[in-house]
Structure prediction request, 1325 residues.
Amino acid sequence: MAGLFGGSALAQARRALLSWLPFVAAIPLLWLVEQFLASQPDWEYAFQNINHIGIAIILAVSLNLVNGLTGQFSIGHAGFMAVGGYVSAVLLLRGPSEDPYRLFFILCIAAGAGAAALAGWLVGKPSLRLRGDYLAIVTLGFGEIIRVVIENTRLFGGAIGLSPIPRYADFTWIWTAAIATILISKRLRDSTHGRAFLSVREDEVAAEAMGVDTTGYKVRAFVISAAMAGIAGALSGAFEGNLSPQSFTFVRSFEVVAMVVLGGMGSITGSTIAAAVLTLLPEYLRALANLRMVIYSVALVLLMLLRPRGLLGTREVWDLFPWRREKKRAVAAAKAPELSEALIDVRRATIRFGGLTAVCEFSLTVKPRELVALIGPNGAGKTTVFNLLTGVYPPTEGTILVRGRDTRGLAPHDIAHLGLARTFQNIRLFRELTAFDNVRLGCHHLTRESMAASVRKGELAEVEESWITQRSEELLAVMGLFHRRDDLAKNLPYGEQRRLEIARALATDPKALLLDEPAAGTNQKEKAELMQLIRGIRDRFGVAVVLIEHDMKLVMGVSERILVLDHGVTIAQGLPREIQTNPKVIEAYLGEKYARAHAGQIAAGRVQP
Amino acid sequence: MAEFFQHIIDGISVGAIYALIALGYTMVYGVLKLINFAHGDVFMVGAMIGWYVARWTGESRDPSIPGALLITLASMAVCGCLGFVIERAAYRPLRNSPRLNSLITAIGVSFFLEYGGQYVFGPNPRVFTVLPRHPGVHLGPVSLGYVDIVTVIVSVALMIVLQRIVFHTKMGTAMRAVSFNSTVASLMGVNIDRVISFTFVLGSVLAAVAGILYASKYPSVQPLMGLMPGLKAFVAAVLGGIGNVPGAMLGGLVLGLAEQVVSGYLSSSWRDAVAFAILILVLLVRPTGLLGRGEAEKV
Amino acid sequence: MRRILPIVLAAAAFAACKKQDQGSGPTSQDATGPIVIGEVGSMTGTEATFGLSSANGIQLAIDEFNVKGGVKGRRLEVKVLDDQGRPEEAATAATRLISSEHVVALLGEVASTRSMFMAPKAQQAKVPMVTPSSTNPAVTEKGDYIFRACFIDPFQGYVGATFAANNLKVKKVAILKDVRNDYSVGLAKNFIDAFTKHGGQIVAQESYSNGDVDFKAQLTNIKGLSPQALYVPGYYTDVGLIARQAREVGITAPLLGGDGWDSEKLYEIGGDAIVGSYFSNHYSPDDPSPRIQEFVTKYKKAFGGQLPDSLAAQAYDAAGMLVDAMKRAKDLAGPSIRDALAATKDYAGVTGNITLDQNRNPLKPAVVLKVGKGGKYEFVTKIYPEGMQPESGSGGEAASGAGKPGTEASNAGQSKK
Prediction:
């Protein structure tokens, strides 16, 4: 690995150090600021506020990871804060009374973070595979249960809380943690993992189809954010000197949610600013103290009605200062060896929904580089076949093999990983992301960098990011979309959206591309271009293409082989011209009466479906 | 042994109230696919209005059955309007927005009612007297409060009425159609807005009655009283299968019983935890609930 | 512009942070302006009544002192901050009062948890703090600048136990405590200790969380064990409901409680079910002693006919005690006021004569009241700390518990904890 990426262990260490340098240099700076502030006698109150803001920033930015970036709704953040705070405090109280280098303190914080992460895992793993609303209730319940447990456990001091906790945390500690939280979030967000999180938020089904393990990412976001909340709790306890379960109520969780929503869900800058504002505002508005929660709730409702994007939407302050670091070194993605056996081998797959058999005994083989079309009247089951292939539903009977592997039991993202990519009938782009990001997301499942590598901007991460960029730009260019690189997907004209979806699917480096009605809604000229495009894709990228289409001219012009479905059953299969004259096909499309009435003409090849 | 039966009786009594509230949750979720967080607070408003009207009419000093009826009707009217207004103002504009936004709004409305209520009504608990105070019935060692009997009778009656509405009237059929597929229902000529408003009003009316019954049983009303019962009723709805009307009734009963049994035999501090434990269990093992059906998303 | 906005907001937020501390109040260095005393209380939230009652009591006391000429020729002023019932807010409020408003002393809080959050701030800044109603012993242990005007939990638990053993003459008691409330938990524990020392037996221990409304399960269990009395040291909001449900379940034994019962709402909520039950308190507005009646009259006049509850009375005494110390102190610096406070002896408060022991807790008697017909409280008896003599003319009785003086000395306020 070291040799391949051009550097010894020393060089790697140097890289890591450089990337963390700005952060490490900040610590002594913070310490200096703290000394100055502490020496001013009347600044005690302001100082306390500043530290409260620091804690709030950790909470808001970490929650933003889940609620904003990944689009899951968690309202139990105070619970994780409590877990981290209490575990850390209990250890501190039992630790050595002298801790001059604060080594034990660091251990306690780490323990708190670990406990909170574990709690996050326990809560998240079961609930994140369910729909969004359920997660909200589960996290709410979790917060309450934690509080009940704390109040009833003597170890945690019960209702009166824990005190006195050694007051080790101060400005430097808190703001170091806050800055670290922001930095980690930023680096995650800017990495391929960040795009994966965003894709989960935008469209889970599409993300899965592009190879993103959506549940895995949701859980990861949840656990990381819980760990950070745990750190906030540990620092808070060591700053105030005491902990009380009444500090970790649902109201607290709600306040953090308000910060994330106000700042703009997904914006780290927004969460930071909102955290500061919403920590200071109550101090200012003491006169309106009884109305505080009322104002918050009204503000939240109005925000949702009028400006759901919050203050900053998904914008970040560093977007104001874009810089592009072009890395000269680029490594192309490895190419898999050519295969001669069937890419897709479906053997008598059947699927039933309740009493309805949508697809019956469907069989299909697709060899590499083949161009196959799947046609049939509406409701014939064509998209259902695609869904079976990509693992959205398991077949009730029969077997589906992709590159020799039985896909039963595999999740869509696993199948994408095997080399099957698709587009959707109703275009499922990541609408709020740019065209560039959409395509880059397609590359995600090919990467191997860990999240830690992304955060410390390790060698692998840099290199992978670089080839992702190159590959994505190339694909955009091939699709004629390079000029749309930085436009939001939702703003693209219809035809370009379809092409973007194809580009994204190609980015996953598939062996077979499933296109679901790519010509829907396009005009004659565009259809002709599409024909060329599809052939061009097959030639350039070496993929097999399976096409669902209604436009016969396109189908006839592009396919090498056609399958015809009607009511879930394959009624014909063969070369284009065979299909054209097949009486069963004509009957399926135009009806029995017509077929009988025009039997002669059909035989003469003058009627086409 | 006598204790066991007492716990059962108490469980059924509180479970019936949970069921009434759960019905509102489940119906709204059915048509809108939205968890109306504010529902528990509509329940609170029902109890509060009951308190105010009782004071105003003098019922609280001299409770009687006709008086109680009047108060309940007044409360139902107010809550029905409240439900209608909430849907119109806060949920309808967001019907085509991402689900997350509606969820946040629902929480916002809930908090608004709770803390607004604290501001308007004051945070102090008030004593609630609407039903006349009759002695209960004693069946051997087990005692049945008068309020408990009324609660069960009223709840059962209302649930029967609801069943008739949902399964035997045009509006009820429209509600069910919308809960299956709102797009197709509207194409079939169903006025979606009207159906949704009706659902909200119906649910809120039930919540109002639940509020009066609950406050009669635990005669202390304050603006935050809806929080816990609301959450528990939601759990009951999920337990029974969210979107399923008989499921909500079943879920309410089961939850009420479970709570009492745990409080009685384990420890009452864990009473609230029971609801959440059940929730997590259901979501882990059978997310569609006891009577619910699964839902496939069209890809 | 839209891009600049967030940066501007961020900068404004940080600037505002600094601005906040330019407090509006005058500093105590200003030798002719009013003397500012800080008060922290829960004016909003679920415990708003506690904060409001205390604020009234303090206001009354301060107004009286101002009429009499203030302290050292200067007027007294109280700056009140609301902590919304949240402990971390209490700490923030305390800091703000100390460092921005430059108060000479702090009054507050009612709840022990919040006092515990405030105390380190006061101690660190060497600003004397007097809590009017926090009964947890740990509060004054936070430092020698922290004082208290009320008796502590161990004593109240002892009072309940002594009353049950000696006056009610019962041997079997069941406990129903509020596990979410450190006050309730503390009282229950001390009751159990004292009652078992008296030779009694605790037949059952159940708990609930404040805000619960259904106690049937616990009460049904208790009923099965046939106690002769129930000790329910919670707040009146829950106790009222508990009493009702206890009667519904068939428990006829009387209930016993602590000063958390003290409110006119107790009878409103509990009704006939609570009649015949007893609770310990700091004072009784029906006490015929002229000092108390004068206070009641003045309070009613100042606050629209409301009867002062014991929180108001304790706050009144706390403020009075503080100002009295300020008068005796050689100047208004923190250490001087502290020393004067520590030397408080026989301060004539409405909740009794206050003398502070070496832990800065007062040695005071408690009264036991009975809830009579129609909710009228009837004075039953006064119980004194071990070894303390009754004041003349107050109709009380000395504690006459069995047990060795050595161990029970802990109840007399000489706690070593």
Summary: Confidence is low (pLDDT under 50) at residues 1-6, 324-338 of chain A. DSSP finds 24 helices and ten strands in chain A.
